[in-house]
Batch of 3 targets.
Target 1
Amino acid sequence: MQSNIDGRVISLGSGLASIPERLLLAHARGEVLFICGAGVSMAAGLPDFRDLVLDVYSLLDKNVHAVLTNIPRGACNKWGTFDLDLTDEQKAEVRRFIGGEYDVVLGMLERRIDKLTQKGSRVRSEVAKRLRAGENNPAPIHRALMRLADRGGVTTIVTTNFDLLFEAAGKRPRHPVSTYSLGSIPRPTKRMEFSGVLHIHGGLDASAKRLTDLVLTDEDFGEYYLRRRVVPDFIYDAARLYHLVLVGYSANDAPMRYLLNAVAADGSRFDDLKERFTFFGTDRPDPVAAEDWKARGITPIHYDAQNNHSVLCKTLE
């Protein structure tokens, strides 16, 4: 009987995603924590990681950019780089781009043209300019997620995005939304002080004149995930207290490679980790993609991705 209860799903309306009943009940108890990626902010006109890399190259290396723009999404490693009129360093960046390792690509570019990996590099400056160049108006999905992030008196949401669209979506007169980034993020707890928009990869400063730390390149991931362990320690604690729900990610996104493989490994040693979920959209049913998520220790919730993922927003609303 218990397995039948655990497997029950609730339809929220015609054409919308069906949600596991156990997740709805956990949300009613205030035991759900949303973790949001670039797919959410694309609805507000901001780029995903791949397009952000293209934008940076268009400004800093037009020769490589001309090559990258001709590479189709989903290209495999058989797409050759040998006949390109580029240096070996540039060809290596193209090869990593084909493999979807965008954090590595930006790290290689930064080390090649800036010779440093600090906040003042040209790569980081152009990333910040690009993200500030949008309309900076939150999309309906930001507002829906901020409403869902209400744990009963406080709002808590986690994002790997650098933009401040969640803050804008949750802004109310006399009730500003707190913002925390990297080392300033409060430790997970069920208490009320665990609240705000938590930028676990860093966030843009409200003032364009101030530069902030961002987890952007492969070296950054090594620094904050392996050396300082800021992000994995946060995720480990959160996964014991809350059901983590991922929104706006694909299984191959850089944050997923670093975050979820580590948590899945923890799940084989500890029995107190709560079930983790992800919303994933495809144009047609894709059981292989679903199994890919399951293999990472994530329960997939599928939705129809046609019409710019409108079903996802309607489901959350």
Target 2
Amino acid sequence: RRRRLQRYLLIDVMSDRLFPIRTKTACQLKWNWTALNFVEGFSRTCHRTSTSPLTPENFNNFHNNDIVIEDRKRMLQGLWPESNCSYCKGIEDKGGVSDRLRQIDIPDLYPPELDKDPTATHVTPTVIEVLMNNTCNLGCLYCNPALSSVINQENRKFGRFEQNGVLLKPLVQSHDLAEHFWQWFPEGFPKLRRLGFLGGEPLYQKEFDTLLEMIDQYPNPDCELNVITNLMASPNKVEAMVNKILKLILKRKIKRLDVTCSIDCWGPQQEYVRYGLDLVTWERNFQTILENKWIYLNINNVISVLTIKTLPDLLERVNEWRKDRKIYHHFSAPTPGPSYLHPGILDPDEFVVDFDRILSLMPDQTDQDQISRQYMQGIRTSAIKSDPDPVEIRKLFTFLDEKDRRRNTQWRDLFPWFEKYRH
């Protein structure tokens, strides 16, 4: 049964239905994609842009609010949105390959309204990502209380911290929006091409079980489900998730499953950055996903000041895993923040050798390989063409010292090379 499913999913029928808007700033994400954050009460058109308020009153208009409509109008004129998209603009201004450039030629994802009117600004979403709550079992350094209950509990325990531009504080809960999403689901889900379920950690959220029940009740055989997970659940829980979604695919309730596994580097440095992670457990669960070859397997990699030097150790393992099957690998800087973890805050030559080793370990055989290499080149260029930022460096020292105080950890034992930046 699984071999039959694997053959079915490997039939990759490409089409020429490409995003038709081709101005110098046009981004397919601005038309097809919305992320919904129920914890803080906002929507956005990608993880790099500013947010739009999301309330019970305006929920049904989340994909076509006034801010997004204005952004689309500016892109139709070849202009960058005034208050959004600075992340991609910054990368492109330095000659790098941005998310916008990576996304624009992905086929079959643009809204159907553009077939009739390529200048339409009120359109139907085809890609939705939803963050139901912040329940999570990790406290990653680049994360925040809206995405991690561990961090929120930590901030409640130790209270508000504000020093040298670093602010740590508990979360103020927003509206309860989940009920509005479930009301939208019967009509909205069948129109999607892709649905992402974010965390927090989905495998610890009861809403994830509700989602699978809703998919069973309101199927969409053309939709891909992407689950973004830190893989720090019990092996039995991971197996149960895989088997439950396999049944939905075999019944044609959904097209396929993507599992996006979050990991940034390797060794004790990774267990420090992704606080609460145990690499033995992570690798055991990753092997489960690896062995189920019908799953589209992704690795999501946040590149920060503290992960670049041991990222090559992870890439060596990824290359070994790739001997068994295809693995897609995605990279990003810690955006929208915190700013003091961005690799561009240090001396331009700090990571030159590391980036050279990273690029030497990245394959370049397929189009996807080339895109990933270009994206890594963009991050490298952004880092080595930036000037050192003493203000941000001071923030990072303050942040790490406070995290060590709270967690009884010792960052200097793992990142001794950073100490030379203290002035």
Target 3
Amino acid sequence: RYLRDNKELGLKEIVPYTTRPMRKGEENGVGYYFVDQAAYEKMCQNGKVIESRTYETINGPWHYFTADSPELSNADIDYLALGTLESFRKIQEYYGKEKVYPIYIQVEDEQRLLRAIKREKKQEHPNFKEVCRRYLADEEDFSEEKLQAAGITRRFLNNADREICMDKVASYIGTILEK
């Protein structure tokens, strides 16, 4: 939100899709577009899915994906997307390396786990098994080897003071946009 709402950067968010159920407090189109399995399959059949990941969760398979749309072809707009290394690589492959830049925001393990637990406690039916599964999956998905393979050379540490971290990220994005 900090980067998206930064008027100086003028970034527009690419909102990903998911088939997982909406959590308490979430709104469709903010953070994610929530779709059912049939809509996901139709988008795949129509060639609209740029990248897709399926997670075998405690509650069954959930798909997270990025879909192409006419609004993303506007060359006058700079976009911001949040995702995994896999989604970054597929989006970069789709749009081109000269147009897609990685920004890796790192959170230390303890802090990442505590934040996930705090968020889960707010749910009507907290699922801490799923929190643990996601934490362990992230350990593998964001391993040093995979970071290097994706060309991640710069990291921004987001622990105690998020605002300082986001200011550094915004400054870095500003240098990219000047090019």
